[in-house]
Amino acid sequence: MSTGVEASRRATAPTSPGRVGDVRRRNLSLILHQLGLSGQTTRARLAADTGLTKASVSSLVADLVSAGLVMEVGLNRAAERGRPGLGVALNTAAAALGLEINVDYMAAGVLNLAGDLQFHQVVEQHNAGKDPEEVLGRLTELAGQALQQAEAAGLTVHAGGLAVPGLVDTASGRVLNAPNIGWRNVDIAEWAASLVPEGILGTAVFNEANSAALAELWYGHGRGMGNYLFISGEVGIGGGIIIDSGLFAGPGGNAGEIGHIVVDPEGPECSCGGSGCLERYAGQDAVFVRAGIEGGNDAERMAALLEALEDGDEQALAAVRRAGHYLGVAASSTFRLLDIDAAVLGGNFATLERWITPAFHASVEEHAPAVLAADDVVVSGLGRQAALMGAAGSRIRTVIEHPHLLLKQH
Ligand SMILES: [Zn+2]
Description:
The protein is α/β, with parallel strands linked by helices. It has 3 domains: 71 residues, Arc Repressor Mutant, subunit A; 141 residues, ATPase, nucleotide binding domain (Nucleotidyltransferase, domain 5, 2-Layer Sandwich), CATH 3.30.420; 158 residues, Nucleotidyltransferase, domain 5. The protein is built from 14 helices and 16 strands. A hairpin with a 4-residue loop joins strand 9 and strand 10. The chain binds zinc ion. Zinc ion binds next to loops.
């Protein structure tokens, strides 16, 4: 069985740096993919697993080692009994920077090629209505601290990914509309280009909920679930649609906006310009108001809500039940529309799991009977790391898909 591109196309790829042929490009990527699947292995096993010749594997691995993407890992006696060989693995010193701007916090972290989060820092900060330049300035400081830590730990950061709570155009580096932080048509391409000085792949901007949905798929409880709806509750409600183990992002890259599904045509106006959106019923501000919780910042209000729920406060319980009910209304239509039968709940919905999940289940059972089984709803374990892990993880994917971009030019 041969999975190597080489086996079907025996074209001789030019090996001179700067002119890496298509076949060699694909085979470089194939080696990284295989190392991601198998972990530490040998060149001989890589050849067997990919269908490439041992000579090809050795040459490809040599390029990837010099690019800092693969590392030698010493003798590997267990894998090659009787014939100890030098093992190879993904180079865990290769990394991507992940960043998130949200309504009431910003965060930075560094994710290595193997998908391990090396650093993670969250700063509570109110970003709504602030000048984008001011917010990006603060984020630059936070990113600088993460990059310093990465450098001190011997990591090489090749790229950055930023998650924002709104509609984005990744290709042009624009935040089109992020109503909860008040950004409309903000061009961050120039800012992004200079953020990671050593990273020739630059920094890309992504939708926060789509990033978090992918983080669940790659690193979280979505692993092994090929199809699900990710729903994340914050000030806004974000969604991400995972179909066939990939993100369904839609033609403009912004599918999954479940927070702006209409759950009551007669409902109140929404920040998106519409009315009766789910966000007005299950977003955290709506829940705080219903629960009668006032004053303090968002973290303090959430703490007060949790305390009231623990105490069995009927007004707080009813507020969260109501949020779960409307969440179920929106999800039921989505499950039916997309033929999806599982959900991953993140953000505050994960924090409120004990109280909101039963109401969510009951609502889906009422509006879309027999679609969801009890174990079809799982709660995120990634917390506030999810979006930045997804944004950084998308850049790690770019490295794995296009490693030739990092080959040393001699
Ligand atoms: Zn809306």
